[in-house]
């Protein structure tokens, strides 16, 4: 079973990463983009997500030399798009209660792309009551806390985050009635797990009761969203399986995901027809390729007993 998952996860992840690498120029920021970002979700956020996927490929170092080279090139591309970090610095300077510069910076910092002025600014701003009190979804508060942990802000000091309080404020933290989960709650569940475990680097970061709850219901949730062909959420839930102390990596889930992946590596976000226009295809399915690359990378690492399972 493990060998089957390892092979299929490696196939899905390397093909998704190759697709992101081949089409990376389609994800570049428009030339006139400034740190004010009229629509942060249009290109800026997906750039950060691509960098996240590449950073995890590099962190796990389980995918082979070609994939590692592609991941390095994607990291360098995304960093250049952000002005080697200058755009993040300017955005943090102008919009002091905005959390996305810290969240976006974390994958780069993980891979050694550092920006000294930005880190000094983040160290100051992230300790302010205004920044700590900004009203965002509870799982996003965990995202900020984990980004601060990755960057190395306030480690071991009074500025550390209250992880228990942050955890229990989330939907998942209350171990709610699992049959009432909906599409949005599903995404919130996945991200709560991602940030508590730093994307499977620390499975013990998931409290015991939540880990037991997720282990019991994750197979059901995966089947539900696979049945209605919500492949983006399915792949995110499969990442959750890699974040557990005893990873849940079902061969049937991986075979199902591999069947819907296109020959060029594109993984459709859902069961709707895929557009022919290259730019539209990239916009519609970039996130699912990111998620597939992460899911496959972590499944590969966990089934091989590698870095994610060892920390």
Helix percentage range: 55-70%
Shape: globular
Work out the strand percent.
Answer: under 5%
Largest sheet, described in full? none
Which residues sit in consecutive blocks of at least 5 with pLDDT less than 50? Answer: 307-311
- Integer-rounded radius of gyration: 18 Å
How many E-type strands?
A: 0
Q: What is the distance, rounded to the nearest whole angstrom, between the alpha carbons of the first and last residues?
A: 23 Å
Could you give the order of the helices and strands?
HHHHHHHHHHHHHHH
> What is the number of helices?
15
Would you give an account of this structure?
With 311 residues, the protein is mainly α. It contains 15 helices and no strands. It starts with a helix and ends with a helix. 47% of the residues are buried.
């Amino acid at each position: 079973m493990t060998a089957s998952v390892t092979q299929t996860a490696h196939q899905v992840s390397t093909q998704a990463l190759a697709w992101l690498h081949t089409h990376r120029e389609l994800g570049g920021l428009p030339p006139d983009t400034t740190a004010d970002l009229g629509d942060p979700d249009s290109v800026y956020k997906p750039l950060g997500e691509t960098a996240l996927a590449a950073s995890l490929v590099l962190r796990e170092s389980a995918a082979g030399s070609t994939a590692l080279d592609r991941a390095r090139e994607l990291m360098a591309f995304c960093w250049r798009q952000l002005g080697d970090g200058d755009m993040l610095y300017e955005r943090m300077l102008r919009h002091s209660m905005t959390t996305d510069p810290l969240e976006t910076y974390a994958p780069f910092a993980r891979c050694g792309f550092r920006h000294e002025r930005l880190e000094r600014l983040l160290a100051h701003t992230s300790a302010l009551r205004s920044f700590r009190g900004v009203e965002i979804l509870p799982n996003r508060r965990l995202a900020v806390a984990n980004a601060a942990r990755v960057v190395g802000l306030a480690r071991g000091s009074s500025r550390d985050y209250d992880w228990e309080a942050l955890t229990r404020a989330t939907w998942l933290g209350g171990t709610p009635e699992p049959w009432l989960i909906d599409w949005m709650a599903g995404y919130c569940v996945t991200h709560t797990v991602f940030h508590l475990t730093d994307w499977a680097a620390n499975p013990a970061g998931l409290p015991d009761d939540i880990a037991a709850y997720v282990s019991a219901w994750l197979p059901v949730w995966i089947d539900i969203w696979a049945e209605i062909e919500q492949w983006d959420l399915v792949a995110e839930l499969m990442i959750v399986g890699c974040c557990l102390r005893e990873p849940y990596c079902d061969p049937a889930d991986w075979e199902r995901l591999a069947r819907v992946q296109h020959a060029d590596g594109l993984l459709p976000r859902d069961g709707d027809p895929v557009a022919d226009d290259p730019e539209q295809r990239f916009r519609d399915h970039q996130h699912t390729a990111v998620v597939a690359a992460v899911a496959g990378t972590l499944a590969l690492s966990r089934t091989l007993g590698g870095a994610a399972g060892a920390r």
